[in-house]
Amino acid sequence: MTADHAWKAFTVERMDHVAQVTLIGPGKGNAMGPDCWAEMPVLFAALDADPEVRAIVIVGSGSQFTFGLDLSAMKNNDAAPQGGLARARTEFLTKLQRMQAAITAVAECRKPVIAAVHGWCIGGGVDLISAVDIRYASADATFSVREVKVAMVADLGSLARLPAIIADGHLRELALTGKNIDAARAERIGLVNDVFDTPEATLAAAHATAKEIAENPPLVVQGIKNVLDHSRSAGVHDSLRYVAAWNSAFLPSLDLQEAVSAVFQKRPPVFRGE
After folding, report:
1. Which class for 188: exposed (0-12), middle (13-18), buried (19 or more C-beta within 10 A)?
2. Which one of 58, 96, 107, 129 has the largest count of C-beta atoms within 10 Å of its C-beta?
3. Apex CA 62: angle with CA 105 and CA 75, to 5°?
């Protein structure tokens, strides 16, 4: 493979007509911080526009796919609105919509995207894989729609896109409990297409599928994606707008402060509905 532009949150390598995008953090466990949200739409716009790229594989570096939102980095960057006045809430709405747009750039990329998941895939990681076309997992993968555990409504795409991927009861169970599920259950409910023994086998399978796609007529492949996405795109965008407005109004809470404090103090949170 040949290396690409120097990104802070990703590495990109290209071989033949397939690009591999690797999450590298820089937060622990490839956590998704400000660099990730800033670079992702630029990166996927570039891959979308590159006629030499016909398919994309996403993988995490090291032992994890991603721990999801980098709470430490986002906390330091005032990720939640401070205070109850309109300016702070409007500024937060704008930041949130930019983060949503980063995931949407993956979903709307005309080149098929395949995720090869190993280790943890938490919160924002599930938002990300809900935006790709095909999901493979290694046997060690663990998935969690974790936002409820940190006093948030998931707002970057899971609740908008997963209804087209898994059944309603499974989605409600995952989103309302924040529980972890292993790769075997993820496959049973349709969250992932297939499970492989090792991360290496998972990545090899993702590249094999990407190569098979890349050998097909590229404009026809793009047309298939466009037609499949057309019927659900309006619903996804409406859901994203709604949850952005909801969280701009309701995210600041004592429960959110308690959740973040509990994470850093490594203790169970005590929520009071305030």
Report:
1. middle
2. 129
3. 60
- The total of other beta-carbon atoms located within 10 Å of residue 42's CB is 13
The reply to whether 271 falls in a domain is: no
Beta bridge pairs of residue 113: 56
The CATH number that applies at residue 18 is 3.90.226.10
DSSP codes, 49-113: H-TT--EEEEEESTT-SB--B-HHHHHHTT-S--SSSHHHHHHHHHHHHHHHHHHHHHHT-SS-E
pLDDT in tens, 178-222: 999 999 999 999 999 999 999 999 999 999 999 999 999 999 999
Range(s) of the domain holding residue 107: 2-197+217-265
- Cis peptide, bond prior to residue 269, ω within 30 of zero: no
Q: How wide is the angle at C-alpha 115 spanned by C-alphas 74 and 164, nearest 5°? A: 90
Find the DSSP H helices in 146-217: 158-161, 168-177, 183-188, 199-214
For the chain, the average pLDDT equals 92
* Spatial strand order in the sheet of 113-117: 2-3, 10-15, 18-23, 55-60, 113-117, 134-138, 194-196
